[in-house]
Amino acid sequence: QKQATSSELKLGVVQTAYANGASTRYLQQLPIAVEIAKTGVKHVHKAAHDSFDIGVYFEANGHGTVLFGEKFYEFIDYCEEHLKDDASSKALTRLALLPKLINQAVGDALSDLLLVDAILTLQNHTLASWSSLYTDLPSKQSKVK
């Protein structure tokens, strides 16, 4: 049986049409697939599950989570058998713990926030530097009568 390698894992983000276009454009500049799904958790969850090995979804209303597919777990198992140096072991431990932190079933804003904080810390970023990666396009909400 062929084992998944990191280059074969498909990482992607699912957004809806309500996402700010600036975030979509920013994501499309990265080596990350971006998929647009119908509005609603059931649609974005299904798209993230069906399209990606590591699927991130979020809606403009704040709902969202990260899903880890079977190939992600196969990759972790393969690495546990073959990577023995300290740096790889530390990185692998962090990756393996991600599914334990994130609530894949329904999402959890608090655990998502803790994950973002941990990533920013590990990458030596601040909230300000993260917030400045792109500027949201202006939007206006109005009530139609």
Description:
By secondary structure, this protein is α/β, with parallel strands linked by helices. It is 46% helix and 14% strand. The chain contains 6 helices and 4 strands. A 4-stranded mixed β-sheet has the order 2-1-3-4, with helices on both faces. Helix 1 links the parallel strand 1 and strand 2. The protein is globular and about 65 Å long. The termini are far apart. The model has no long low-confidence stretch (mean pLDDT 90).
pLDDT averaged over residues: 90
Give me the Rg, rounded: 17 Å
User: Count the helices. How many?
Assistant: 6
Give the tally of β-strands.
4
Hey, roughly how much beta strand do the residues contain?
5-15%
Widest sheet: strand ordering: 2-1-3-4
Q: Low-confidence stretches at least 5 residues in length (pLDDT < 50)?
A: none
The H-and-E topology, N to C, reads as EHEHEEHHHH
* Percent in helix: 40-55%
How far is the first residue's CA from the last residue's CA? 60 Å
Shape: globular
Q: From the helix content, strand content and strand pairing, which structural class follows?
A: alpha/beta
Brief synopsis:
By secondary structure, the chain is of the alpha/beta class.
List keywords for this structure.
145 residues, alpha/beta, globular, 6 helices, four-stranded mixed sheet, single chain
